[in-house]
Amino acid sequence: MEQPYQPVKKLFFGRDDAESDFADGLLRDGFQSTYTSEAVLAGRKSLVVGRKGSGKSAICAHLAGGGYPGRTALITPDDAAGDEIRRFELQGLTADTAKSLIWRYVFAVHAAQHVTEHADTHKRWRAPASVRALKDFLQVNDESDDGRLTDRLRRGTRLLQSATLSVKMFGFEASVSAGGEPGAGGGSEGAQATRQLDALESGVRAAFDDLGCVGAREKPFLILVDQLEQVWQGDSDSHALVTGLLLGAKHVVAAYRHAVRCVLFVRADIYDALNFADGDKFRSDEARITWSPAALRALARARASLSLERPVSDDELWDGVFPRRVAGESTPDYLVRRSLARPRDIIQFLTLCRDAADRSGHPTIHEDDVLEAAEQFSRWKLDDLAKEYNVGFPFLRPVFAQFENAGYVVDRNDFTARFEAIRDALHDRYSAYTEQLTAESLVDALYGIGFLGVCRGDGVAYAGDSQWPVQPYEEDLRIHPCFRPALGCRTPTGAADGTVHAGHGYQGTMVGAQNHAAFLRNVSTTDTGFQADRHVRLLEETASALSRLQRQLTRSGLPAGSHTEVQESIQLLNQQIDALPRPGSGLTPDMVEDLIGDVTERLALSHAQLNDLGLSDEPVTRRLADEARALRRALGGSVGGGRGSDSSG
Questions:
Q1: Which helix (H) or strand (E) holds 645?
Q2: I need a labelling partner for 175 at 20 to 30 A (CA). Which of 244, 330, 376, 429 fits?
Q3: Residue in 167, 99, 241, 174 with CA at minimum distance from that of residue 637
Q4: Adjacent-strand bridge partners of 265
Q5: What is the pLDDT of residue 223?
Q6: CB–CB of 345/53 below 8 Å?
Q7: 87, 238 in Cβ contact below 8 A?
């Protein structure tokens, strides 16, 4: 008896992140080659720019996982690595140039490791002198083995700042004893570090030449740098960190005569925020990722074929596995139009459709399953948009609330009136962003992140469709179809029945903009769905840290006197927090930052005192150091990031 057609049980479209997707096999076996990936593979492009979820990390994972026919090294900095680079300075150099040197050091060590390992594969009785010199350099400077990026940066920082980088085997040596005068070479701290790096790079280049690694016979060694968003905070140090990386990566090509290449994967909002004199020199290296509807359909078909373990045609996928039409629109058009034209969006949307069908016991995906998935997907994407741009625009959630339960056709004058009703409340809560919190600036920002489109000619232009921002005379705006279900914007002019739908913890706009102002002034930072600004969150983190320390202290075995001192310190810090004004009632970022600075210093002092008393093994002693370190990083703006990597493959 022939089995019924039930593809839903086997259907799988992949994971949200490239690393997991590659491990599961779908990205590895079903990688969708594009113009950008082909240009990178061929060496024509070295700077891949795209929005979150556009496929940057997919290209990176593909190249690092065997898609490149040569050897690769993958560098993914985390917040600890970012802290090391931010602190790196050299007297006599600008911040951008100084940070380019620490990146050049990292690249040089990778290249040196590669060329010495490559020499071991040559059947020579004795390695060339240049290779032996590199091996000595790696051993002397503790760089013989692959390690954590943070440790490598720490070593490089120490060596370059103290001018003790051992490069004497390359015919140059300069060192400075503590507090002493510059040795051979003289000059500023930055000039000495530059000369040392030049000598190191010359030594690496000589080894490549002596081994014949440059030319048609050998593929360049490929260094890949990804996940820079983990170290991006939007401040001047972050700008210098990324600009220095760009300068260092461009230097690599000239320094090693095409024996080494660097490819950088940078999120579009980060790259577009950079402003430096040499920016025009990267135009020909730049590749912006864009996805056409046809390419996204091909991605869906390829992944369906892999999971069903047989070729799936367009007709079968969109008129068999999926319904032919949804809400009167062809299904692939419906899905693409309601996403942001990125692979991650399509994968998530397709997966939600599949899950809805499976929950309902459907053997194939029905129209109702797609409609159900569209609601959940819209809520996800609205939330993701606020998180994606939280560093530059932390006020997005309350701004989104102004569009709830209204029409998806937005008149600019109407939005301006709504904004004016909550402007003062927004300025109080986000005092560091008052220049951006004007009606005109918000329209520009909402267009730039893809939330709003503008009517032009016979269509609607969204970010990516046009290089031009919204013009002052353009008043007819549209909410992107992706976000309409989450906001309850189901008709052009508003809910037909006048109902206020449940949103993200906000009152809908139909209850009046004045209610929003009161809401913003009085809302608790723990209200469901409300994203407090960064400094309020920092206060919450500080209070939580003190609470954890208090609980640890009650279980500790500290002597009575030490126990009392730590207890009194925690109580005093809690009193300082309680004495601060409430959010919206005079609390300023400076107050928060000063207080958290005091907290970290006091915790670090308590930790040092317990250490001096021989109590370093007490859990509460270690907890004091951990909480002080975490708060210091939070104050610097780092958010998560996990453990960075610096690996070769």
A1: strand 645-648
A2: 244
A3: 241
A4: 48
A5: 97
A6: yes
A7: no
Q: Would you say how long the chain is, in residues? A: 649
| pLDDT, position 163 | 62
The residues with which 75 forms a beta bridge, in sequence order, are 225, 646
Rg (CA), the chain: 28
What's CA 393's distance to the chain center, in Å?
Answer: 15
DSSP structural state of residue 49: E
3-class DSSP state for residue 45?
coil
Element (H, E) at 50: strand 47-50
**How many other CB atoms are there within 10 angstroms of residue 376's CB atom?**
17
174 Rama sector, left if φ>0, alpha if ψ -120 to 50, beta otherwise: beta
**Residue 348 CB coordination number (10 Å):** 23
Task: Convert the pLDDT of each residue in 223-272 to its tens digit.
Answer: 999 999 999 988 889 999 999 999 999 999 889 988 999 999 999 989 98
Reported for 203-206, long-range contacts at CB under 8 A and 24+ positions apart, including other chains, are: 203/112, 203/130, 203/133, 203/134, 203/137, 203/167, 203/169, 203/170, 204/108, 204/111, 204/112, 204/115, 204/134, 204/255, 204/256, 205/255, 205/256, 205/257, 205/259, 206/130
Distance CA 250, CA 283 (A): 12
What is the per-residue pLDDT for 147?
76
Kindly state the DSSP code that residue 582 receives in the 8-state scheme. P
Q: Supply 569's token pair.
A: 């310190």
CB 61 within 8 A of CB 18: yes
Q: Mention every residue, 6+ apart, whose C-beta is less than 8 A from residue 511.
A: 500
For residue 526, the model assigns a pLDDT of: 37
Name the residue type at position 17.
D
Instruction: Please report, to the nearest 10 degrees, the dihedral formed by the alpha carbons of residues 288, 292, 297, 302 taken in order.
Output: -30
pLDDT of residue 597: 87
Give strand pairing partners of 459.
456
Token pair recorded at residue 241: 């960190």
**Secondary structure element (H or E) that encloses residue 476, with its range:** strand 476-479
Q: Which long-range contacts (CB under 8 A, 24 or more apart) does 527-532 make?
A: 529/397, 529/503, 529/504, 529/505, 530/397, 530/398, 530/504, 530/505, 530/506, 531/386, 531/390, 531/394, 531/396, 531/397, 532/429, 532/583
Which DSSP symbol is given to 229?
G
Query: Are the CB atoms for 331 and 318 separated by under 8 Å?
Result: yes
CB-CB contact of 342 with 53 (8 Å)? yes
Query: What does the angle CA 105 – CA 108 – CA 109 come to, to the nearest 5 degrees?
Result: 90
Place of tokens 């301006």: 416
CB atoms within 10 A of CB 6: 11
Cβ–Cβ under 8 Å, residues 377 and 461? no
Place of tokens 């060590």: 109
Task: Report the percentage of the chain scoring pLDDT > 70.
Answer: 84
Q: Which ranges of 69-188 would DSSP assign to H, the alpha helix?
A: 79-87, 95-120, 129-140, 149-162
E strand residue ranges, 340-456: 409-411, 452-456
Q: Residue 367 has which token pair?
A: 């129209």
With a cut of 50, which residues of the chain have pLDDT below it?
1, 172-185, 495-532, 637-644
Neighbouring C-beta atoms of residue 50, cutoff 10 Å: 23
Q: Say which residue the tokens 């019924």 belong to.
A: 4
Q: Which residues contact 642 (CB under 8 A, 6 or more apart)?
A: 78, 230
CA 553, 558, 562, 564 torsion: positive or negative?
Answer: positive
User: What pLDDT is attached to residue 321?
Assistant: 95
In contact, 60 and 74? CB cutoff 8 Å: yes
Task: Give the whole-angstrom CA distance, residue 239 versus residue 96.
Answer: 8
CA distance 103 to 149: 11
Return the closest-CA partner of residue 581 out of 595, 571, 591.
Answer: 591
Q: Which run of H or of E encompasses 47?
A: strand 47-50
Distance, CA of 334 to CA of 350 (rounded, Å): 12
